[in-house]
Specification:
Layout lengths: L12 E3 L15 H5 L34 E3 L16 E9 L5 H19 L21 E6 L3 H4 L30 E7 L2 H15 L3 E10 L32 H5 L14 E10 L1 H4 L4 H8 L36 H4 L11 E2 L2 E7 L5 E11 L6 H9 L8 E11 L11 H4 L2
Antiparallel strand pairs: 1-2, 3-5, 3-6, 4-5, 7-10, 7-11, 8-10, 9-10
Helix pairs in contact: 2-4
């Protein structure tokens, strides 16, 4: 649930402009017409997310006719899918290298994946055997992000290049992890503001894997669609809470230091990269919804209606942790989620949260399998996610209403330059 939201620069998420065809072809709007649509998807990032830590924010509300024109850039200093606004649809997928596949096969795979990602993010079809699922759609703010898991380095003979920051996460008391849906050699994050565009990318990435890698696990998520609200606002999670008010902002003076590996960092191939912690966090909604409104607000430490701290003010008002009621009890309870996750309560530890909600149906007993595909970014998980989660483990009021069911940690290298593929400095270094 959390605090602070980023406002990335326009270069991170820009509209596609071009000629507008005078007459659309019969049967619908052409891809070219959509790419030429005037009116770009906005960039403002309000706060959003759920679960623990902090969340990246949704994109500015825009007319639905312009949703398809939003475009993120594949080539750049950082990989896409980190500082862009929350997209309406998302897929997380992990692969294991096939038996006998090593560094050579991994390099060829990342080369294929990077070429495919670059084309799809530009709103173009794949180079061969395209499924046509996204025909007539624009890029729809598609982002595709790639990362490496811990075991990848042993399987490719690159153990000496494995970052120490990729050491396995410690165990936490709230963990009930399914190993089959955790970790993996390679990780791909896909997000888009159109479900078919996102699915098209998922199929293309899976097909490109060929015989080099097999799917280990895959998860599907969603967020509010751009344009669904009358004005830009913080998103709500599946518990109904406004969430992500204090996510770190790219305009913060220490944003890069907290979120990205410095250009002089170690190992060198991780320069301008980041580390992604991925957690499938199930929300125990039946139990949560039995609470009164006041009880829910005490668990979080904020008003459900507008996200304002219980100590008073508006959503962005600084929380007064010392304010007490007449009976001497703190207005914001000592175990409130928003109190515990504040950076000033955790030695400055902060993470950039960029999650998706999920709903995977109803269990046999009628319990909804729903919650958060939690993805957070940091320059070093031992200074970001780990201290925050340890603090939450020791007494977060929210912990009895959530369950961590899957987990992964991935090294996400910096962006690929023109003519490069993601991970080239590692695989060809």
């Amino acid at each position: 649930m959390a605090e602070q939201s980023p406002s990335p620069s326009p270069s991170l998420r820009t509209p596609v402009t071009g000629e507008t065809p005078s007459t659309p072809p019969a049967g619908g709007v052409s891809r070219r017409a959509l790419l030429g649509t005037a009116g770009a998807t906005g960039l403002a990032l309000g706060a959003a997310g759920a679960g623990i830590g902090y969340a990246a924010a949704p994109a500015r509300a825009t007319p639905l006719s312009s949703v398809g024109s939003g475009r993120a850039m594949f080539h750049g200093k950082h990989q896409p899918g980190i500082t862009e606004g929350l997209q309406a649809r998302g897929h997380l997928i992990a692969f294991d290298l096939a038996a006998g596949a090593g560094r050579t096969e991994a390099a060829a795979l990342l080369r294929r994946w990077s070429a495919t990602a670059g084309r799809l993010m530009a709103g173009e079809p794949t180079t061969h055997d395209d499924t046509d699922v996204a025909r007539d759609a624009g890029p729809s703010s598609l982002t595709i992000t790639f990362g490496f898991g811990n075991i990848f380095f042993a399987r490719t003979g690159l153990e000496k290049q494995r970052p120490s920051a990729l050491d396995p996460l410690p165990d936490f008391s709230s963990d009930q992890l399914d190993k089959a849906r955790s970790n993996g050699d390679l990780w791909v994050q896909i997000g888009a503001d159109d479900a078919l565009v996102a699915f098209h990318a998922l199929r293309a990435i899976q097909k490109d894997a060929g015989s080099a890698a097999r799917v280990r696990w895959q998860m599907n998520g969603f967020n509010r669609t751009p344009g669904a609200t009358a004005h830009p606002m913080t998103a709500r999670n599946l518990m109904g809470q406004l969430d992500g008010t204090r996510n770190p902002k790219p305009t913060d003076s220490d944003f890069d230091r907290r979120i990205f590996v410095p250009s002089s960092g170690e190992p060198a191939w991780m320069a301008n990269g980041s580390y992604a912690v991925v957690r499938r966090i199930r929300m125990l909604l039946d139990d949560w919804e039995k609470l009164s409104l006041a009880a829910q607000e005490n668990v979080i430490g904020r008003k459900k209606s507008n996200g304002a701290p219980l100590s008073g003010g508006t959503e962005t008002t600084a929380m007064d942790l010392e304010k007490a009621r007449a009976d001497g009890e703190y207005v914001v309870p000592v175990n409130a989620h928003a109190r515990i996750t504040r950076p000033d309560q955790n030695g400055g530890a902060a993470i950039l949260r960029r999650p998706f909600s999920y709903h995977d149906g109803i269990d046999a007993d009628g319990t909804p399998d729903a919650g958060l595909l939690f993805v957070c970014w940091q320059a070093d998980p031992l200074r970001g996610f780990v201290p925050l989660q340890r603090k939450l483990d020791r007494g977060d009021a929210l912990s009895q209403y959530i369950r961590h069911e899957a987990s992964g940690l991935f090294a996400v290298p910096g962006g690929a330059g023109d003519g490069e593929y993601v991970g080239q400095r590692l695989l060809e270094g």
